[in-house]
Amino acid sequence: MRKGNKVSIIGAGFVGSAITFAIMDSGLASDIVLVDMNKEKAEGEIMDISHGAAFVKSVDMKAGDYPDLTNSDIVIITAGAAQKPGETRLDLINKNAAIFKSIVPQVVKYAPEAIILVVSNPVDVLSFVAYKLSGLPANRVLGSGTVLDSSRLRFALAKEFDLDARNVHAHIVGEHGDSEFPNWSAALIGSMKLADYCQEHDIDLGSLEKRISKQVREYAYRIIEKKGYTNYAIALAVRRIVEAILRDENSVLSVSTLDETGSAYYSVPTVVGKNGKIMSLVPKMNDEEGLKLAESRQILKETIAKINL
After folding, report:
1. CB 3.0–4.6 Å: which of 24, 47, 194, 265 could bond 127 by disulfide?
2. Strand partners, 10
């Protein structure tokens, strides 16, 4: 008999193991399964994380195989080729699309009722691949999208203004990649429009937007150059998405979801609950932002068109 929430993670690399730890530490799940082609690696990660049992809420953890996905509420896919220094997320597409063709059918076979959360990069394209391969309703296939990017944006603004990042409200939209951009016209500092805040504090808004946009867009590349990969912040971002789903919070998160034309996945503010996507909640954009979003979506559509599904 099931006693709570079950979350399964596919991929025991730097990201998958960090997500496993974050979810275990959060107390959100009663059961966690970690699956990897390298079973010993998965077993080692589970052993290491499980030994903290005395410091967290009770949770059953195991390194398993695809049949162990049965009854999962959420299946998180992190498996795939890693992003290398100098390589864009879109460069990974051919490698990781092939990997997904072997993973997604197994997920649907053993956990047909689960919500699939894609984290592997390029996340927007692979979310679309997972949606097509799974045959599931689009609301039940999500990508981590720009949830982390939006947190990076809030971090950068909070540091700039010496504020708590939780009181900065702003989203990165579009592709989780080079064509992403901040929805500046809807950004708030507390309940105050960013433009009004800058005017009141004698800050050059245009210069700020340009500098912060570049900074946020390059964060991941800088981290990869220095340590070879990113894993901690994305683990926290995924934990937040999992929390919104399992607790049916109807939270607004910039996850990657299927657009209204059914031709691409990309990120806009989205209401997320127990059934995945509930609805998009996109503020009115100015003309420049609307054009950027259309361009970002077109880049993703062109990439998706090159994949043999």
Report:
1. 265
2. 35, 77
Q: 10 Å Cβ neighbour count for 14?
A: 18
Amino acid sitting at position 217: R
- Active-site residue list: 176
Dihedral pair phi/psi, residue 240, rounded to 5°: -65, -40
Beta bridge partners of 181: 173
Contacts of 140 (CB under 8 A, 6+ apart): 114, 115, 116, 275, 276
Domain boundaries, the chain: 6-145
Token representation of residue 177: 């990649």
CB contact at 8 A, 265 and 131: yes
Q: What is the pLDDT of residues 92-105, one digit of tens each?
A: 788 889 899 999 99
Residue 192: helix, strand or coil by DSSP? strand
Across the strands, what pairs with 276? 273
Mapped onto helix, strand or coil, the DSSP state of residue 77 is strand
Which pairing describes strands 251-253 and 270-273: parallel, antiparallel, or unpaired?
antiparallel
CB-CB contact of 273 with 173 (8 Å) = no
Token readout for 226 is: 């220095």
What does the pLDDT read at residue 88?
Answer: 65
Nearest by Cα to 100 from 74, 72, 126: 126
- Strand 168-169 with 188-189, pairing: antiparallel
Superfamily of domain 6-145: NAD(P)-binding Rossmann-like Domain (3.40.50.720)
State the amino acid at position 100 in one-letter form.
F
Residue type, 180: E
State both tokens at 214: 């570049």
The per-residue pLDDT for range 29-45, each reduced to its tens digit, is 999 999 999 999 999 99
Radius of gyration of the chain (CA): 19
Q: Which helix (DSSP H) or strand (DSSP E) does residue 48 occupy?
A: helix 39-50
- Report whether pLDDT(180) > 80: yes
